[in-house]
DNA sequence: TTTGTTGTTCGTAAAATTACGAACTTATTT
DNA sequence: AAATAAGTTCGTAATTTTACGAACAACAAA
């Protein structure tokens, strides 16, 4: 990415947007939901859950891994993926803090 | 977007990924953080907070609006933006439910 | 050693994203 | 009526994303 002045964004904004971006595709949400309900599972099982080619699944997994949301370990001939619990906890806190910034009680559909 | 078989994703996955995608840029996180701390504010104030051209700010605001995370109302010659509290609450629930799917207690950095 | 299984990587094409300045719109003010 | 102010929209360029099939690598089994 090439932000003209990415220095002008706070570290927290960069981290949070990185997590959000990784979650910004239905296939990747499906993968995360699946892995979150399991302890770990291999590429093939994930692929079976999705309506896309394996090369594309691999690409999505790589993006989730690069963002830090999942981990992958080789267990020949398979590769096991699982949630990266440390970063998962970080993401949970960051999203939670943002969502909690808005007072929930006065949910007026047309505030402006 | 052109997903070969977007029917194969659950509605919830589509909605959640849509919110996440909208949050997948530091400028948009900065905007949301700013608006979440205020009741509402105009375009100009938002623009002042960001290191990008006004045309680009307008574009980012449009994306947040399309995703349903914010609302904008014209108050000539200004435009006031604010968090869409109804959808904000929905997003909070959806993200929360996903993050809570993973047991927090056993945060083992290398689970697989 | 050949075959099969499992996933990744490569090459590529189409579409989406991000960014900017310039032009335009809408309404107020002079 | 002209000028100003506030934002949006337009046109465009560079980059990134998404997707696929084909080729490849790593290992196990026949």
Please render the helix and strand layout as text:
Two copies of one chain form a homodimer.
Chain A: H1 11-22, H2 26-36, E1 41-42, H3 43-49, H4 54-66, E2 70-75, E3 78-83, H5 85-99
Antiparallel strand pairs in A: 1-3, 2-3
Chain A binds a DNA duplex (30 and 30 nucleotides) through helix 3 and helix 4.
Quick rundown:
The structure is a homodimer of 112-residue chains. Chain A has 112 residues and is an alpha+beta fold.
Radius of gyration of chain A: 17 Å
The CATH homologous superfamily of the domain at 23-95 in chain A is called Winged helix-like DNA-binding domain superfamily/Winged helix DNA-binding domain
- Strand-residue fraction of chain A? 5-15%
Q: Which pair of protein chains has the largest interface, and what are the residue counts?
A: A-B, 60 and 60 residues
Query: Please, how many helices of chain A?
Result: 5
Strand order, biggest sheet of chain A?
1-3-2
Tell me the helix content of chain A: 40-55%
Largest sheet of chain A: 3 strands, antiparallel
What's the average pLDDT of chain A?
89
CATH class of the domain at 23-95 in chain A: Mainly Alpha
CATH fold-level label of the domain at 23-95 in chain A: Arc Repressor Mutant, subunit A
The quaternary structure here is homodimer
Which second-level CATH architecture of the domain at 23-95 in chain A applies?
A: Orthogonal Bundle
Uncertain runs of chain A:
1-6
Q: Distance between termini of chain A?
A: 33 Å
Number of strands of chain A: 3
Name the overall outline of chain A. Answer: elongated
SSE string of chain A = HHEHHEEH
* Class by alpha and beta content of chain A: alpha+beta
